[in-house]
Amino acid sequence: MYYPRAEHTYIMKTFFDIIKDNNISYIADIGTGRTSLYMLGNYFGYAKIDAMYPIYNFERIKLIADSIKTVKYNLVKLDIRKQHITKGYDLCLAHLVLTRGIDNNMDLKELLNGIFRFITRYLIIIEDKDIALNMNIVKFATKCGYKLIKKLETKVPNEFINGDQKKDIGYLFEKKY
Hints:
This protein is an alpha/beta fold.
């Protein structure tokens, strides 16, 4: 059985509680990982979830499928840096997309532009705090017509730095159409 990290569960659950009564029927999970799919499926089990994945990696897809057996989702191969999706969503969740982009030597500006190209009413972005602040996500969101509803920060134990903690930050944005 898979259980997501408590810090990210707290951020997602807090944001989901804020928007839960707003007819969330269509969701895009940008960057698809086990935590985001697990949380979305358990919280919005009635919704249609498109799980966006840039590279069809059989081992990764199998790991997700084996870990999250109770969530129904449609796997969509989509590189948000290069492709544009025209379908509208009620909620888009970008969980550690920029952080994983760094791990895969991707251009962060291209990834950020890709996230904000989605047509959505609510957008949740959860990232490493240093990356988020460096990319100035709130300013970028405002330029794209989004309003910040809530920001949350958590501390995450970092086993690579003796006793230190890194910080994660989550943003809940809304866009009126």
